[in-house]
From TrEMBL:
<dbReference type="GO" id="GO:0042127">
    <property type="term" value="P:regulation of cell population proliferation"/>
</dbReference>
<dbReference type="GO" id="GO:0044548">
    <property type="term" value="F:S100 protein binding"/>
</dbReference>
<dbReference type="InterPro" id="IPR013787">
    <property type="entry name" value="S100_Ca-bd_sub"/>
</dbReference>
<keyword id="KW-0106">Calcium</keyword>
<dbReference type="GO" id="GO:0005509">
    <property type="term" value="F:calcium ion binding"/>
</dbReference>
<dbReference type="GO" id="GO:0005615">
    <property type="term" value="C:extracellular space"/>
</dbReference>
<dbReference type="InterPro" id="IPR018247">
    <property type="entry name" value="EF_Hand_1_Ca_BS"/>
</dbReference>
<dbReference type="InterPro" id="IPR011992">
    <property type="entry name" value="EF-hand-dom_pair"/>
</dbReference>
<dbReference type="Pfam" id="PF00036">
    <property type="entry name" value="EF-hand_1"/>
</dbReference>
<dbReference type="InterPro" id="IPR002048">
    <property type="entry name" value="EF_hand_dom"/>
</dbReference>
<dbReference type="InterPro" id="IPR028482">
    <property type="entry name" value="S100A11"/>
</dbReference>
<keyword id="KW-0479">Metal-binding</keyword>
<dbReference type="GO" id="GO:0048306">
    <property type="term" value="F:calcium-dependent protein binding"/>
</dbReference>
<dbReference type="GO" id="GO:0005737">
    <property type="term" value="C:cytoplasm"/>
</dbReference>
<dbReference type="InterPro" id="IPR001751">
    <property type="entry name" value="S100/CaBP7/8-like_CS"/>
</dbReference>
<protein>
    <recommendedName>
        <fullName>Protein S100</fullName>
    </recommendedName>
</protein>
<comment type="subunit">
    <text>Homodimer; disulfide-linked.</text>
</comment>
Length: 100
């Protein structure tokens, strides 16, 4: 993918870059550890984590996303989070838009 990327291609590149930036901090550079996931959530989705009164919410999200229970989030598992958030945003847009 190059300089004439479509918006969709740029979006995929951004997701890859973000994942790699956090996954590369410690341990395996292909997966997010719990600490890396927390750093990602606190930085990239701060609006979400700040509104949570429950301090265990990020841990529970990690557990739910870690489908193979290896204590790490690979890119596929990470995408499930992004997909879930995107679907929730889509739902709220659809609900907010005026009905015909
Ligand atoms: Ca995993």
């Amino acid at each position: 993918m190059g300089t004439s990327d479509s918006p969709t291609e740029r979006c995929i590149e951004s997701l890859l870059a973000v994942f790699q930036r956090y996954a590369g901090r410690e341990g395996s550079a292909c997966t997010l550890s719990k600490r890396e996931f927390r750093a990602f959530m606190d930085t990239e989705l701060a609006a979400f984590t700040k509104n949570q009164k429950d301090p265990g919410v990020v841990d529970r999200m990690m557990k739910k996303l870690d489908l193979n229970s290896d204590g790490q989030l690979d890119f596929q598992e990470f995408l499930n989070l992004i997909g879930g958030i995107a679907a929730a945003c889509h739902d709220s847009l659809v609900l907010k838009s005026p009905q015909p």
